[in-house]
Amino acid sequence: MFALLDCTQQETLPVDPSADFFDPSDPRTLEIELRHVHLPYLAQYGYVDWDRDTGEVAPGPEFETIREPLVALRDFAEEQD
After folding, report:
1. How far is 18 from 46, CA to CA, in rounded Å?
2. pLDDT digits (tens, 9 = 90+) for 17-68
3. CA triplet 20, 53, 28: central angle to 5 degrees?
4. Which end of the chain is more exposed for a tag (fewer CB within 10 A), N or C?
5. Is 79 exposed, middle or buried (0-12, 13-18, 19+ CB in 10 A)?
6. Kind and range of the H or E element at 27?
7. Can you give the residue range of the structural domain that contains 71?
């Protein structure tokens, strides 16, 4: 989600469950949860546009409503490093 803060509405990003910021004890479970739980919910509420076929996401029509909390979370996470 943090990566979407730097995207335009037209840009898409691949969803990569093996990315460094994920710390899965079970990578397959993480992939399943992203595809069948988290991404569908985020898409349902309009926070992301998710293409199930390509596995890419883009900011959805409601993304701006969560931008400020995401920026605060990202800033906090960066301060902790």
Report:
1. 25
2. 666 666 667 778 888 888 999 999 999 999 999 999 998 999 999 999 999 9
3. 40
4. C
5. exposed
6. helix 27-33
7. 2-75
